[in-house]
Amino acid sequence: MIYFFIGFFSGIITGMGIGGGSILIPALVLFTPLTQQQAQGINLIVFIPAAIAALIIHHKNKNIEYKITIPIILSGILSSIIGSLLAVYISAGILKRIFGFFLILIGLLELFGKRIKKPSRNLRKFQ
Questions:
Q1: What is the domain range of residue 47?
Q2: How far is Cα 38 from Cα 109, in angstroms, rounded to an integer?
């Protein structure tokens, strides 16, 4: 039953575009006997169907700027290859610390980072 709840909440977060891995990976490491590397691998597999579903919905709602997607996709593929090669050779303890630091950093940036105000798409139509 724990797997269902972990998947359910990480799926909601993924669909919102926040990143389900921020819920899925810590939950798998804390509440199951999986290692950090196994949890990250599972996150990547779970991400594929969740991302496809979210992509379809965001495409229908015209929330995607296609001009910038190709450079992001290409750099994402390259860096994911490098990152996965590194993750295989880093110990689970160090990988947990790196991931935890990353989550704390992102949380602090969300709480205290300056926001750049951009007009929404709907406002641009009327200006």
A1: 2-65+76-126
A2: 28
Number of structural domains found in the chain:
1
The token pair at 57 is 């919905």
Higher pLDDT, 122 or 105: 105
State the pLDDT confidence band at 117, using cuts at 50, 70 and 90.
low
Q: Write down the pLDDT at residue 82.
A: 93
Residue 30 · residue 6 · CB < 8 Å: no
- State the average pLDDT over residues 9-21: 74
Q: Which residue has the tokens 């290859």?
A: 81
Compute the distance between CA of residue 119 and CA of residue 40 in angstroms, rounded to an integer: 36
CA proximity to 2, closest of 32, 29, 26: 32
Q: Are 44 and 8 in contact (CB under 8 A)?
A: no
Quick one: residue 42, left, alpha or beta (phi over 0 = left, psi -120 to 50 = alpha)? alpha
pTM, full prediction:
0.63
Answer whether residue 71 is part of any domain: no
- Exposed, middle or buried by CB within 10 Å (0-12, 13-18, 19+), for 92? middle
